[in-house]
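Researcher: We plan to redesign the surface later, but first we want a full-length starting point. Tokens attached.
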């Protein structure tokens, strides 16, 4: 554990093990643990219902102690029966690569195809180093009403109490106390990589910040520098209000401008090709076809890979422009004016930097895969079928 940080379990059992009463509190403990130890865990195994599992959905065994040697839950015999509902495991982000097979297969398939694909250059191939550190969570329901005194424990007493408990559960499924037992790894569990503040730069941007960027892009913030200011305020005044800020080397809460730019770009693209909107148009087209049987409709949704895009900063655009201008030695007024503007900006560093951050997109559109919507009304179709002189007169007449 980093420094004097103590996880906020509702009930602590050992320094890195305890339990909480709700899924929200469990999420809060994980988030805080990641922040304070500058680590990141990703979900390896989980059901969406974890923390709110329905007891009646399947049969469960009544237990008195946890026979699992995994030691994640550390539940010894305390006289109180319980039922294990579900478990969840979070791997260290530098853990085992569970998509290795898919990745190697995709690579070999790509080699088989002869078409050229542009690839990103990655300085670091993978983040996965086979680290075995894990956060283990276990959702259980304890039934203190059916407890037996530890001193007079016997096989028979356990069986009687368990039978009573099962009977009671058939009448009322809301008995008992729901707990999520949590086991957090220690620094020694991270065996294959450095940990702590030294790994701050390998932290991905926090999900809440990514969401905030999406919202702000939707509200019209399209300047990276301005977005950076919003994010700093958001981290300080909302995520860590009244708390100590994480070190500035932690990229998760202090994203670099390149991170902000990438997430803004993704948000722009996502909003432009929202699947949800396309489904709406598709459904609407079906409605219109029925309602206006005489009209023609054609709808082709946007297809994956239709647009290849790359982000460029305004500065890059300008540089390119300048190079072109110089090589052609153009002396026209526009170019002059632009150069004068740039000279002015040169005096004002802040303004220039802001320009450097402005986002630009260079796109190449494959027209056969792009979104297309065509509507031809019955009137337009009839007009199209008329001989040219009539149709031109008709449209002129209409216009007049
Ligand atoms: Zn690790």
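Model: Full-length starting sequence:
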């Amino acid at each position: 554990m980093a420094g004097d940080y103590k996880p906020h379990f509702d009930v602590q059992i050992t320094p890195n093990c305890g339990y909480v009463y709700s899924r929200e509190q469990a999420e809060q403990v994980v988030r805080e643990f990641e922040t304070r130890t500058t680590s990141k865990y990703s979900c390896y195994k989980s059901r969406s219902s974890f923390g709110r599992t329905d007891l009646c959905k399947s049969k469960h065994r009544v237990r008195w102690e946890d026979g699992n040697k995994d030691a994640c839950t550390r539940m010894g015999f305390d006289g109180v029966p319980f039922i294990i509902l579900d478990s969840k495991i979070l791997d260290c982000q530098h853990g085992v690569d569970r998509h290795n097979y898919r990745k190697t297969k995709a690579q070999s398939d790509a080699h088989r195809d002869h078409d050229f694909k542009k690839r990103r250059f990655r300085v670091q191939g993978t983040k996965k180093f086979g680290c075995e550190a894990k956060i283990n969570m276990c959702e259980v329901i304890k039934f203190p009403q059916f407890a037996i005194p530890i001193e007079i424990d016997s096989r028979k007493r356990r069986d009687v109490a368990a039978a009573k408990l099962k009977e009671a559960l058939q009448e009322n499924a809301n008995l008992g106390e729901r707990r999520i037992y949590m086991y957090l790894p220690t620094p020694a569990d991270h065996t294959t990589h450095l940990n702590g503040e030294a790994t701050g730069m390998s932290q991905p941007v926090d999900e809440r910040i990514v969401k905030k960027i999406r919202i702000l892009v939707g509200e019209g913030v399209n300047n990276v520098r301005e977005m950076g200011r919003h994010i700093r305020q958001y981290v300080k005044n909302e995520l860590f209000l009244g708390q100590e800020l994480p070190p500035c080397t932690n990229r998760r809460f202090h994203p670099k401008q390149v991170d902000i730019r990438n997430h803004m770009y993704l948000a722009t693209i996502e909003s432009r090709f929202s699947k949800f909107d396309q489904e709406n148009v598709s459904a609407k087209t079906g409605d219109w076809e029925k309602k206006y049987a005489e009209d023609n409709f054609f709808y082709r949704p946007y297809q994956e890979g239709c647009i290849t895009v790359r982000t460029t900063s305004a500065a890059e655009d300008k540089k390119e422009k300048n190079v072109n201008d110089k090589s052609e030695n153009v002396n026209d007024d526009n170019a002059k004016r632009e150069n004068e503007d740039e000279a002015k900006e040169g005096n004002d560093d802040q303004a220039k930097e802001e320009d450097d951050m402005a986002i630009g997109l260079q796109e190449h559109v494959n027209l056969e895969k792009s979104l297309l919507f065509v509507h031809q009304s019955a009137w337009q179709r009839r007009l199209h079928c008329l001989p040219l002189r009539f149709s031109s007169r008709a449209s002129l007449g209409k216009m007049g």
